[in-house]
Design brief:
Blueprint: H1 13-19, H2 23-29, H3 45-52, H4 56-68
Length: about 70
């Protein structure tokens, strides 16, 4: 059985983008444009969502849907 890839709130933004390049489209759609900024190196998804007023649950759902190919 192959383990399904899942993006979590604790994951670092730059790690997400590096591992799942298709995630950039979803991050931009949700207004998270700090892909290349210094904060993306150490800020996790939960911290970034809070700082930018983004609905974390919806963002995670959309990210995981995107990387699962649905």
């Amino acid at each position: 059985m192959v383990k399904k890839a899942i993006i979590t709130k604790d994951m670092n933004i730059s790690d997400i983008v590096s591992k799942y390049p298709d995630s950039v489209e979803v991050l931009f759609k949700h207004g998270l444009h700090c892909i290349g900024c210094m904060a993306a190196q150490f800020e996790n998804l939960e911290e970034a969502s809070r700082a930018h007023g983004i609905d974390l649950k919806k963002l995670l759902a959309d990210l995981n849907e995107k990387i699962s190919g649905k």
